[in-house]
Every structure is written in C-alpha cells, then in structure tokens.
User: Fold these one by one.
Assistant:
Number 1:
Amino acid sequence: MDQALDITLTVNGAQVTRRVAACTHLVDFLREELGLTGSHLGCEHGVCGACTVRVDGEIVRGCLMLAVQANGCKVETIEGLSDSGELAALQKAFHGRNALQCGFCTPGMLLAARDLLRQNPRPDREQIRAHISGNYCRCTGYQAIVDAIEDVVHGQG
Amino acid sequence: MKAPSFAYARPRALAEALELLARHGEAARVLAGGQSLIPSLNMRLSAPALLVDINGLAELKGIKAGKDTIRIGALTTHTEIERSEAVRQHLPLLAEAVRHVAHPAIRNRGTIGGSLALADPAAEYPACVLALDATLVVTGGKGDRSVKAADFFKGLFETALRPGELLAAVEFRMPGKDERSAFFELARRHGDYAIVGLAAFAGNGTKRFAYFGAADRAVLAHNAAKAKDLDSAKTALAKDLRPPADLYHSSETKLHLARVLLERAWTRL
C-alpha cells in the first residue's frame, strides 16, 4: 500500500511543505519535487556518495534516507552551500587542481570534504582519504582531489 | 532502482511501535538507521507493506555508563559511538571497530541496534559483542528479556529476535584492569564490508577470538582460544572456521587471512 504524507522541512534556509509518497527517498524529493538537481543520484544503494547532502548539520546519503524522515529537519544541498560561499575555497581549489573531469561526483565530494574540514581543520592526507572513502570518483584517480583539499588545509585554496 | 510502495508509521512511544509490529507481523519491518534496509528496498530485495520508523523513540537512544555496566541504546548511531568519551574509555574495542564501519555519511545514520539485529555476517558489531560477552536487551509485548551475545546470532541474517520483538539496547560489563582487546579488519577499500575481521579479548585468564566475514554469522573461535601458544592456536583455527568463499577470495585464502589476524591479535593482547 502506498501512502502519502505531508512534510515540512527547511531546505537551504527556505521552509517547504509538500506531500510525498512514503517510498520517495530524499534525493528524489530534492531533485524531482524541488528541482535541486545538484545532488546526483548514482548507485541508489549507498555505495557511491554522489547524493551526499547535509541534514541537521551532518552529511548523509540522500538515497538512504526517506523524504518523510526529513520532516522537521534542516537540509542543505550543494546549491545552498555554494550560494552561501561556504564551499568557495574548496571549489576554487578543485578547479585549480583539476580535481574533477565529468563532475558527477563533485557535489558529494565537496560536501564530504567540507564535513572533514569542519571537524578537523588540519587533516593529513591519510585522514583526507579516509573521510572521502565513501565517495567514488571514476575520472580523477583521487590524487587531484586529495591535493585540492590539502591546498585548502594549507590556505592555498 | 526505486523502492516499491509501502506504508509508513513513526510511533511516538515504544508501546505503539510494539503494537504495530504485533498487529502487522511479517508484513512490517523496523526502520532504524536504514543504512541496510533502504538499499535493500531500493534494490527491491525486500518489499514490506509497512515500515515502522523507530527513530522517534528517545528511550532507545544514548550511552549510559553505570557502576558495573555500560548500556548503549539500540538507536545510538555509529557517529555517536565514535564521539563517545565513555566508549573510548571503557570499550576501546568498540572505539576501534567503529572506524571500520562504512563511511562518515553512513555512520551518521546507521545504528548499533540495526547492525546487531540485521546480523550481517561481515559486520563489525556482532563480533565485538561476542568478544566482550555482552548482553542484548530485547523488548516485546511481554516485557524485556536478556540474551547473551553467544546465544543471539543464529545464522545468516538470523537472530534470537522473535516476531514482534525489538532490540532495545546492548549492555557491556565494565572492564577490569587486566582486560585487553584488539580489533583488526581486512577490506578491499576502507569502510567496505570485511573480507575477514577479528575482535579479540583477553582477561580473567580467558581469551575470546570473534571472527566476522568468516562464516554465516559472527563466530567465536573456541579451539584457537584454548590453545597454549600461537602455533597451536593457528592450527586449531581450522577446526573453528570453514569460511565460505566470496567473489574474490577462496575459502583457503580466507582461512589464511584469519590466521594472519590471529597472529596480530595474539601479539597485541
């Protein structure tokens, strides 16, 4: 039996209320219902990390959380975090280091990197690698991504 | 893929959750952190009629250190365990293990109760509760009951949980002064499920070696634990484990790797 529920949540600072099917996951809701297509849907079973979004201050897999579970939550996506300037240094460093090619993984990668720097402003390369280990990139081989995050750590981003 | 349709309930009290589970029986599934259940829904490996989301049940959350025991509520997330000073201080094995559980974004939602109740044979916590001889607190319509970790895991994704029951918490004894532990895991990528892993304990004149990724469930290597020295322990391990091969590793390779981990643990304990 399908069931629709009314949810109210804050997305990138704006309050939204919508009726959603119980089985809709958060990223489909953000993309299809709100038109926020920056969070990408890759594997849809929690392996690739392309759908990473921030919920109540912590990064989560957007495909492994139901939209109804975000009721009352504060959701932040690549769109909101780009507009606020919070990711500016990382974005500049990713650009400077060629840390993306197709760009599919980039929104999730930026959110994971920012999450690390918020918890630990001086990570070493091993800690950077461990923190982005849940985010697949099929273009760069990761080296340039780690370099870019390191640039920000050293204030060169 | 997309999940099939289902109904959703978010009870506000434990009694309400248990009533829903009793009423809907096998048609209902408990949604804790959802980091294993939602992938299985998205891949249509599971199609429950109703999800009972227990995330609103505050009594299932949190870490409480008492005089003799430390109790971790079933809904406590991996991240909360990772950041807990009480866990670092009293349960160093768990503090080591949690760093191997998936990735930060998954650790923020996945729960210890969900992992134990799912009983994935390659997951970290089942081996930890076996090694530390923990007690699982199960709640149901008839009240609470306690199940020793050694009696909880029954087979592949099978536990001692009966229909209509929920895992409420896991309780660990406060460790004594001479108790030691060690945790090792081999995986192809940091955070992936283990090829093989070992949670090891020594104290009070006993050793416990709990393996994961080496059988249909987490298992204690009883013969290896009784051995007098490392060489005989490594030999005895063949009596404890007959690991099933996976896509990349034969049974022999896994047994070899299990011996490698046994040696590392033996040296550290």
Number 2:
Amino acid sequence: MTAGDKPAIAARPEVLNGPFTTRQLLRLDDALRGADESTGLTFSVYVGELDQPVRGFAEKLHSQLEDPDRSVLIAVSPNQRVLEIVTGHEARRRVPDRQAKLSALSMAAAFGGGDLAGGLVAGIAQLANQAGRF
Amino acid sequence: MLRYRECVPRDVPHRHGGRAGAPGTLRRHGGVELTITETVLVFVGIPAAVIAIIYGLVYGGSAARSKRYRPGRPFNQMAVWFVANKQATGAGASSSGHEIGAGSAAPALSGGTESAGTAGGAAADGSADAGHDSGSGLSTVSYGETGGASDSW
C-alpha cells in the first residue's frame, strides 16, 4: 500500500506482514509519536533493503519525507547489516552528527543481538532526547 | 520378615496368571509385579510423553516468533516505512505508526511520494512546505545537505 490510497487505519493487515509484531508496532508508534511531539521534528523509520550506495539511497528516502529539513530518518537494512541515520538541514542543528553516531552505535549493538524493535525504540528515544524540546 | 514369610504359604498360586515361580518370590520380598504392557507404558510411554512435552514447549512457541530477526540469517520480510501519524491524536490512536511505503523498496516508495506529499498538505504545516516539496525532486538532493551517521553490525 502507498500512502494516501486509503486512510492509515485501513492498512492493518499489510503492516502485520512486516518484520514487527503487533506489540512491537505499538511500541514503535508510541516512540515515534513521543519523539515527534517532544521535539517538533519528524522522525521516520525505514526497515528494508537499501540499494547501493546505501548512504545515497537513505538520503533519497529522506528527501521523500514531508518536510526533509526538519526530519530524521532511521534506515535499517537487516540483510546488509547496515544502519543509516539521515538528518535534514534544520534537524542537524538539533542532532549533531556526533550524537547521531552515538545513537547509531547503541542501535547497532541492539540489532547485533537480534532486537530490531528494541534498538529502534531506544535509538528514537536517544535522538529525541538529544534534540530536546523546542 | 520371618513372620511375614510364615504367613504366606509357599504353594499358593499367584493371582496374576498363576505363575508360581519368580513373581511370587518377588512379591514376597516387596517387589512390584508388572505385566508387559505396564512395563512398556512406564519405561517407554512416560519418557516419550516427557520428550514430547519438552519438544512442544521448545518449538511450539517459535512458530509465532518466526519473523524474529537473527543476525546472519536471511531476512525476507516486507520493507516497511513509518512516520508518526499526526492526524491521529485521540480517536485514531488505534492506528499504529502510519505506513507510507511498503513492498519492494524502490517502486513502491517512488509511487508513494506524491501521495505522501498531498496527505501532508492536509496537515497543519501544509502551506509552509508546499513550495519546498514541489521544488525538491528526488535527484536534486546533494549529499552535503544532510547530516547523520552510519553504522553496521
């Protein structure tokens, strides 16, 4: 399904085909919403294959977001074992690259243990914490 | 012991099938006599049942968690992309992180771009970034504009 076809509520079965269980989806939803509300930035999570070059593809995904300048994209490719955090122009001021690298490290540690959802939730919380209140 | 022996006469036929030899002696010494079926049940049936229960406990639950990611094993789940659902504040809280792209990455995502933009136009800050969205094509993003970090595991 692509966005805008139907309201998001209709997307129930499709989402459950993804890598997350219902409980994990709820946690992820909570983390994303909390991060958005507390920072004013838009946080986004992509889990799937990333084409080569990985960084370029992640930036391309980031540019498709609603407001790329104020967005933070976390792109994870479990198969390639690669993780990319992309911050827009405005978001980069709030989340410096050094801090992004720090949360990337902690997320990669969780992913290395096989915990995708837990790593994402922790990473989002860490990034949001860094970005602070606006 | 002696008294007990005296109570039980030697020549009484055993009640199980009348085998007067060894079983009778066993019983007199306090042993338990088992038929072949009972023996099989106790020494094969019970261990088999225990093994089956443990097997079920170990592998029964894994069917539900088969989508779990294990590093090093192939991961063939559908690609998902989430942003927080800004419209859903109270009533629509049941809709978890609203999915804007799914399926094999590139085609579905590029297809979802325009619709994502229009959906966002309905949101609060639609007018502010409308010009920005229309202006930035996918190919115009240069690598210097964004920050972030990379890692692998």
